[in-house]
Design brief:
Length: about 325
Amino acid sequence: MNKAIAFVRNVWTTFRPHFFAVSGAAGLTGMVFAYQDPPVWKTATTFLICFFSYGLIQALCDTFDLETDRINAPFRPMVTGELPVKMMWVVLGSLLLAVGILFYFINPLMLAFQGAALVLSFTYNRMKRIPNAGPVWNGLIVAALPFLGALGVSDITTLNGFPREVIVFAFLVCFVYAGFVLTGYFKDVEGDAKTGYRTAPVYYGIDVAKWHVIPYIVVAVAGILFFLSDQVSVGSNEGSSTVFLVLSAAAVVTMVSSSFILIRNPSQHNSYKVLIWYTRGMVLYFLSPIAIVHSVGAVAASAGFLGLMEYFFSKTRGTYQA
């Protein structure tokens, strides 16, 4: 029994629960924009898969990144040997198969996005060897979540059936999340350099690469302008403009503050704080468009997601790795 509990705990740790809010927020907003009152089981299953999908993606990428993690994060269960890699593959294979079966019964088109996300995940580590390619490549993986969320709660059966808001939101998810990935690279400079990864901080140096996060913030601001101009077509509710603007502005200010911290001190040790603040802003940014459809729901979701994320973040502070 103790071994079983330890195994489950190590799998849970590998899934990085402090980032579940990221994938959950990306999927939930896609669901809200396309919601067509499906059966409750479809709605609940779609949300849960989106919420926990960060863990599957991260664990899958980690199985290819053990050499680097031995330097950057030697405490992780697959590195220490507490979680055998072969057993992790069994867990991942079983979960991905189960998800695929559920997707088939919810909306078969979801399988196409699952397949695309898996291909991107399997090739992500190779893209880290190309300067500037890694963040956007990883962003494309997470950008599948708004589409999966939309498909899970609607009768969309073709790629051209998605609401425009879902497509634009997925684009924003890709690039705002890419900023998160780039920010995370600063805490891994030592291991990435020694194992041949050519991330921006390794290839350009941290004093040049720290400026690369700015374009991702600009994309985030452009997204706010789009949704403010597009509210009528979505069917906004009373007060939605104000709530959306407050939430999205707070999100951008938080991400900008993270960038200022990085620009002032892009050291590997300081980058943990940078990543945490960027993540807070990013999750709030992903949830803010919900206000256009349901302002109270957006506030409630933001409070719940951020509160849960803070709880899990509190478990990582002793390692300076997230």
